[in-house]
Hints:
Archaeosine Trna-guanine Transglycosylase, Chain: A, domain 4, mainly beta, globular
Amino acid sequence: MQKSFQVHPEDNVATVIEEGGAVPMGHKVAMKAIAAGATVVKFGVPIGVATREIGEGDWVHLHNCRSQVDERSATLEVRTGQTTDTPYE
């Protein structure tokens, strides 16, 4: 697993702090397996819900985690965060 920084002891994700792996630097990585529907915790507080099973060491981002506040979060493009539900011409 890439080097990462876990903020709070109850977090199930950590922030990647090195380049060159499968998870982009500055993004979240699962510290342990997270079941679909389980709460994703960072900073000791819930930040989202797993939309599918997330394995230990997996990238935790828009493709497998959604906000509990913003319903559109699950529709954003994974790498850029741009909307996919609004056509731009």
